[in-house]
Amino acid sequence: MIPLPRIALVGRPNVGKSTLFNRICGRRKAITDGRPGSTRDRNYAQASWQGHAFELVDTGGLLLGSDDPLLGPATVQAERAIEEADVLLFLVDGRAGLLPDDEAIARRLRREGTRVLVVVNKTESREEDLSEFARLGFDGAHFVSAEHGQGVGDLLDAALAGLPSVAVEEEASAISLALVGRPNVGKSSILNRLLGRERAVVSSIPGTTRDSVDEVFERKGRRYRLVDTAGIRKVRLLKENVDHVSVVQSRRAIERAHVAVVVLDAEEGLREMDATIGGEVLEAGAGVVIAVNKWDLAIEKKISQRAFETDVREHLKFLPWAPVVFISATTGRGLSGLFDAVDRVHAARGARVTTGELNRLLAHATEANAPKADKGNQPVRILFGSQIGTAPPTFAVSINHPVDLHFSYRRYLENRIREAFGFEGTPIRLKVRHRARKPRS
To answer: What three-state secondary structure class fits 121?
Structure first.
């Protein structure tokens, strides 16, 4: 299999790399903000242009020699993207003009030996002479407006010239796996441990991850699309607009995920926000695996695994069917078990029950415990049931009156279905249908 050519966007902060990234991808995947430092990780996406498939990489701003605790690691991430890329798109700001930081970056890129295209962004209405960018020492310059899309097609023609034409790989077979949780519970550390390299910025400062960072990973012949999301916090704790956007993106990642790994912090213990996040995953219909991270630290404190799991079940009462695994991103402990649980949950999310099996179960269930209506005292009878969907498993039951089933009876039926057919780690949807009355003749 020919690997996709990789094109990386580099430059100092706030020159429009993420805006161009979103423009080329055709969707708002990277967070854009008017302040430096919004992008901290490498952000990957598959894209195509005129029959050419490629991988596009957005990077944090290059600040050579920065001592900032977050912008410094972002520069390290950008350096790694430079080393991996087949072509570098070096963005500069046409409104601000050529700055000393641009020249310093140009000297760094020339040492790499990779093909570099200078991209002068924000030139939608500028008529001044832009020849000063020739001092960067690269052949020519491409003038674009990432915000309005001007010149982007010509830029891609030039960037892809000489690169192999590769068909976009179909990703339907990959399990989409989202790592979700509060800030600083170790989601990025888990991602880096699984990939075997520092793919995401890891810091003890909460909120380091802002973009949803994703990458395809293969284990035992099975492909996973890992998504490391920004930590989800209470609205009152979101101090910047970019933080609001990152939380929205995290929630969108949950909605797209086949399985969400809800990461808890063994050292800090359970928090109210853990239950809120678990509820969002349940509402989205994703499969759920609960991963208790930093278990190496809990062992040092002689915390019992059984006692901690009891606390998890008490705190997340609405997820009694979700498997709990204990892991350590630092040591790698439990990660094999984590993926075993993910595989089981993904399989359960797509499982089907035959109509005959379901109706036999409903007959036994109603015989043991008669159906109850949501309102009124009229007797209710379940006439028929069938599975009408998967991901998550969805069942429809027809009853003899235009009422709903009582919530406690819905829960009873769900429990009986789980007892009989499993469905580990996946929500179940139960829809009630009413048999239309025949008109009198």
So the answer is: strand
